[in-house]
Each structure stands twice: as structure tokens, then as C-alpha cells.
Amino acid sequence: MKVLLIGLPYFSNYLADKLSKNFPKDTFISLNTYYSKKDKILFFKHLSKADVIHSINGSISKSTAILLAVLLRKKVVMHWVGTDLIQAEMDYSNKKTNSTLISRPIHLTDTPWFIHRLEKVGIKNPKFIPLKGMEKCNTTPKFPEKFAVLCYIPENRAEFYGIDMAIKIATKLPDIKFNWVGMSNWKHDLPKNVHLHGWVSNISKYIDDSVVCLRMPKSDGLSFFVLESLSKGRYVAYNQPFEYSNYCDSLEDFVSFISEKKTEFDAKILTPDEAKSKIIQEIFDENMVFNQLRDIYL
To answer: The whole model's pTM is what?
Structure first.
């Protein structure tokens, strides 16, 4: 079996690497058809002998690669991840849709709460299948000696990732340490209890050094940061309705949640949430995720 992975390069590269290791008898090729002219040419070269085209990015209005793959009777998989769904909702509202892109591909999403939204733009029976899997760990990391809160805010998209809310939360809780990864500096003064760590290649250490992790972008697919934090037994405050995290949609919600956990931590009655850690590792087990994808391809 030969699978071409296109769309968002980060995910297509990740999946091609992982699937190749898990299923060495099959061929998985990642092509950056967004930004690489060379890869666009390679896509047409490989397409005739490909069995499956898996696009990590969806569209209901236009996609030359997908339409050509459908024309050649290839199996096509669209994996919806977030901003693509926002665009699809706009296209559907403006009646800029292509029925072939809606009806012919197998539609997947890495986010459970996207299912209903995909159905509302005309997609029938979309399925939830994660894009990334978790490696099982036998032990849940112990909490750090001092209570700390972790937040990921990339410098180039700080407003989108909720920096205004993050600043308000830290200001309300001046005695709590807040670690921010993703940014090295900010154009305005920050509360003294906020510590910037810049871009990090491996966020696991920072999760281990935290008790609570925050996630609050304006719009979000199911974040791997959230999954990894939960898998390590950390308590997650999230502005999306994910059943294994704590839903917060206001400043008061976030502050109350963090304060509650801080009180329990100081009283030495708070321990890593091992029950949720096990659930997350089971649901998002790497082997299970990749086997599900391969079953879709067959």
C-alpha cells in the first residue's frame, strides 16, 4: 500500500515517520504541497501509483490535489484540524461549496467537538481519530516541590492564544508562579510572577515541573499539549469542552480552579491524577491510533 500524506507539513511529516516505522511493508510519503514547488511536482509523479491520499487539512470549496485524486479513483481521506473548519463554515454560509469534496472523501477529525460542526456543513458521518498518539509510561511524574502553573503562548500568535487572559489570571494570583513557554519577551510589562522560557523543543520537562496547565486560545482543536499534560497526571484548565479537563470560559473560572488546586496542594492532599492519566494513555495509545488510521486506508 502506498499513502501520500499532504496538508499541514508538521502533521504529515510526523505521521509518515510513525506509520513507516509501524508498518514497514507499506509506503508513506509526506509532501509539502502548500509551500514546496518540488513537492507539488512529486505529488503528481506519485499520484498514479498511490492507493490513498490523506490530507491533514480539509476543504469543502476547493482543492486541486483532492479533486484530481478523486478523478483518478483514489481513496481520499480528509483530516480536519481547526482553522480549516472555520473556513469551511464560511464557505458553507456563502454557498461556496463543491459537492465532490463533501461527499467523496472519508472525513476524519482529531477533535471530538468538531463532529457536530462538520455535520452542519453537510459532511455525513465524520469520525474522530487522533493525529498523534501517546507513548505509555509506567509511572506518573511526581509534582514539583513548589506549586506552578504552565501555559503555552507562542510569541507570533500571542493574542490568539489568550495572552490577555493569561496576564489577568497571573495578576489575580500574584503569589503563584506562572511559567510561559513559546515566547521570550512581550511588548508590554508582565506581572512579576510570570516567567518566560521562550521556544522549547521538548515541553515535557515543563509539564513535569507544573501542577496546573492552562490552554485558552480563541479557537482550538484537541491540543496535544492538553493530552500530554493529562497523561502526566497534571490538572488542566481548558476553554474547550474536553471531558477529561476542567472547562473554564471566564477569568473567574480559571482563577477559581487554580486557587482550589493551590489550596489542596498546600494542604498536601493533592496528588497527580493517575486515573485520568491512564484513561488518556489508553484512548490515545500510539499503536491504537496508527492501527485505526491504517484500517481507514485499507
So the answer is: 0.85
Answer for the pair 216, 238: CB distance below 8 angstroms, yes or no: yes
114 with 154, same domain? no
User: Each residue of 216-250: pLDDT tens digit?
Assistant: 999 888 999 999 999 999 999 999 999 999 999 99
Number of domains comprising the chain: 2
Tell me which long-range contacts 276-283 makes (C-beta under 8 A, separation of at least 24).
276/230, 276/233, 276/244, 277/140, 277/230, 277/231, 277/232, 277/233, 279/244, 280/134, 280/227, 280/230, 280/231, 280/244, 281/134, 281/136, 281/137, 281/231
Band (201; pLDDT cuts 50, 70, 90) = confident
Which three cell numbers mark 124?
A: 455525513
Q: Which range of residues forms the domain containing residue 249?
A: 148-280
Same domain, 227 and 273: yes
Which phi and psi angles does 203 have, rounded to 5°? -85, -10
